[in-house]
Each structure stands twice: as C-alpha cells, then as structure tokens.
C-alpha cells in the first residue's frame, strides 16, 4: 500500500500546499506547531475537505477536487490514533477492542489474539479505561485501530500527552507495528528523538509546504532541513552491536565508525538506531588528548550552514555516516572550518540518551 497526497487548502490566513508519497513503514510529518501536520492528517482521514488536489491509497481514490470525489471517512479503511486514546469509558478493554472488529464488519478471534499479544494487553482485557495508565490506554487505542482492518494508520502526535516514562513504554509497540505490518503509517511528531527512532521516511513541513522528504537518515542529517530550528538538529545512525563491554558500555559499529554508548540490551550483531543530537558533538582540527570523552571520531566536513544568529550547523561524514555538529560562528572562524576539511568529532558516551537508541528493523526501506 502507498499513500499519495497532493492537496491545497486555505484555512483562514494559512495556506496548505503539500505533495508527498508515503510508502509502507512509518512516514513522519515533522515540523513546528502550525506547519500543517494535523491539517494533512485530517484531510487524509476525510475529516476535512481540501480546496483542491487528489489523495489516493494504492489504487483507491479518496479525494479528487477536479472530479468532485470525496469518500466519507467510514469508507476509507483508516485507523486513527489520537493524542488522547478516546476509548469508550463505559466499555471494557475487550469491548473497546472488539469495536474495531465491529467497525471492520467482522471479528476474527485469531486476529484479536495476535493484536493482544503484540501489544501486551492480555491482562487488561476486563478492565475499563478509567483503571488504565496513559500508556496502557494508548496501547488499547493502537489495538482498536489495528482491529478495524485498516489499509492505513494515522497517528496524530500519539505520545504528546504522555510523560517520558509512558513514552518509553509505548515506543517499542510502534516499532513493532512498523516492523510487523506492511501498511503505511502516517505519524505526526515534532520530537526529533521520536522521529529518529520510528521513521522510515520523513516529510519536513514549514508554513504549510513540504520543504524536504526522503529517508529518515538523509533528512535528519541534512543541515539545510531545520523545521524545528537548529536546537532540534541531529542525525540518525544505523548500526549493529559489536561488543558488550563489562564496564557498562556498549560498542556499536556503523560502517567504518565505532561508537561507545551507555549499555543497551542486545546480542552482538543486533541492529539498532542511534539518535545523536548536533548540540552534543564538538569539533577539533587535531586529535584531542587527555579528555574524558570516549568517542573521538575521524570525519570530513561535507556541508556547513551558517545561521542568522551566532550558531552554525556542520554536516560530517564519519565512516560513511552523516553526523551534525552545532557550533558557533566564532568557532567556525577560529578553526577555519570549511567544506572538505578533515576534523575530529568528539562525543561523550553519556550524551547518547537511552531513549535515542532503539531497534532498527525496517530502517532500510
């Protein structure tokens, strides 16, 4: 299944003009608040009608402005996961889940059991939503969406209302959903670490327009794409666990790059994704000695973007991987940094947060 969107819509003073393709996997709509993310999702869901354009899901026409085709929401075969779970409070978890099957027009016990197992909610089936934590409610909402037999899942900032502990609880289930289904998932977020962890492709939005789209590693590592500003800049590395050291450090291998991070679970050879924030990367023109940082990585500057203020973003090729470093314009001048220059990227192992490391299955799409 592939979702194709080409729409134009005027909402007061805001003009949405967006074109993109969402293949199987998680396509993240990424941008500042007010950039048009939710407007796009609502147009795909049929909750709003664009002024012009066309939306198709594989060979199924959902909307065509020129031909005046507008398929109502209940005929689009979509599963929608909101910020708040929106479960029926008077129904048990089991009944909420079966509502998804009722909406699809069938109840398959085997499918029900598979979804319950995948989301780890078997012990919750007889509870009502009021007795669930926020993370548990979101897992049930995901299950209800899956059991509606959707051809596409829409997730509008589904983790925004959760604290960090609940986010950490839910993210693995979205990873499993990404890796065990072949449907497109259109996912709205403005959290860079969340995007790096989940996305197979990224649609960067600014002012109602698509400013960049492509594979997650390419978009997140591009210094010219800053939909949330330079403070949110960072890169995504696709790596494998090389060695589990006895002092609580895991050594990762990504191409010719070796990276030391706080210990993560997994056997050697297991694939992982690593989110490295640009603000955590320092640059040196000569290999530094006598420092506590465990990662001193030979790299070459591939691009340099000066901001309007005191900052600059430097794109690096480190062993075949894209990294970003956020430095000051003063540092650029003092070090004489330029495209093509050989440098060393310095990164403390503890700078790589645990919530920025996750399983990488499906990341090659």
TrEMBL record:
InterPro entries: AAA+_ATPase (IPR003593), ABC_transporter-like_ATP-bd (IPR003439), ABC_transporter-like_CS (IPR017871), Mo/tungstate-bd_C_term_dom (IPR008995), ModC_ABC_ATP-bd (IPR011868), Molybdenum_import_ModC (IPR050334), Mop_domain (IPR004606), P-loop_NTPase (IPR027417)
Domain Mop, residue spans: 290-356
Keywords from the named record: ATP-binding, Cell inner membrane, Cell membrane, Membrane, Molybdenum, Nucleotide-binding, Translocase, Transport
The organism's place on the tree of life at top rank: Bacteria
Stored SUPFAM superfamilies: MOP-like, P-loop containing nucleoside triphosphate hydrolases
A GO MF label: ATP binding
Domain ABC transporter per the UniProt entry, residue ranges: 2-232
PROSITE patterns: ABC_TRANSPORTER_1 (PS00211), ABC_TRANSPORTER_2 (PS50893), MOP (PS51866)
A GO term from the CC aspect: membrane
Chain segments annotated as transmembrane: none
Pfam families per UniProt: ABC_tran, TOBE
SMART domains in alphabetical order: AAA
Protein's recorded name: Molybdate transport system ATP-binding protein
Organism: Salipiger aestuarii
Lineage: Bacteria, Pseudomonadati, Pseudomonadota, Alphaproteobacteria, Rhodobacterales
């Amino acid at each position: 299944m592939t979702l194709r969107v080409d729409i134009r819509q005027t909402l007061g003073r805001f003009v949405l003009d967006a074109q993109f393709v969402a293949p199987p996997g998680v396509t993240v709509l990424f941008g500042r608040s007010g950039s048009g993310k939710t407007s796009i999702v609502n147009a795909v869901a049929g909750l709003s009608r664009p002024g012009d354009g066309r939306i198709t899901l594989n060979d199924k026409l959902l909307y065509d402005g020129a031909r005046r085709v507008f398929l109502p929401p209940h005929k689009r075969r979509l599963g929608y996961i909101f910020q708040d779970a929106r479960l029926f409070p008077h129904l048990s978890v089991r009944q909420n889940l079966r509502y998804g099957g009722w909406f699809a027009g069938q109840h398959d016990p085997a499918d029900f059991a598979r979804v319950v197992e995948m989301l780890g909610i078997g012990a919750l089936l007889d509870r009502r939503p009021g007795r669930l934590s926020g993370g548990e409610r979101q897992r049930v909402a995901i299950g209800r969406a899956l059991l509606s037999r959707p051809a596409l899942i829409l997730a509008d900032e589904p983790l925004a209302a959760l604290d960090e502990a609940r986010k950490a609880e839910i993210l693995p289930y979205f990873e499993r959903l990404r890796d065990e289904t072949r449907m497109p998932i259109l996912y709205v977020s403005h959290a860079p670490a969340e995007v790096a962890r989940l996305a197979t492709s990224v649609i960067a939005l600014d002012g109602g327009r698509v400013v960049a789209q492509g594979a997650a590693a390419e978009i997140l590592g591009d210094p010219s794409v800053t939909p949330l500003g330079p403070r949110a800049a960072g890169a995504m590395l696709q790596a494998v666990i090389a060695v589990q050291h006895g002092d609580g450090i895991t050594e990762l291998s990504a191409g010719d790059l070796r990276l030391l991070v706080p210990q993560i679970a997994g056997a050697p050879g297991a694939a992982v994704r690593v989110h490295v924030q640009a603000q955590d990367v320092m640059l040196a023109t000569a290999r530094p000695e006598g420092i506590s940082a465990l990662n001193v990585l030979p790299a070459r500057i591939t691009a340099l973007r000066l901001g309007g203020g005191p900052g600059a973003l430097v794109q690096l090729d480190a062993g075949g991987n894209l990294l970003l470093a956020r430095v000051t314009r003063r540092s650029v001048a003092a070090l004489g940094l330029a495209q093509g220059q050989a440098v060393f990227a310095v990164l403390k192992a503890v700078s790589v947060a645990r919530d920025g490391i996750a399983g990488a299955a499906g990341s090659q799409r």
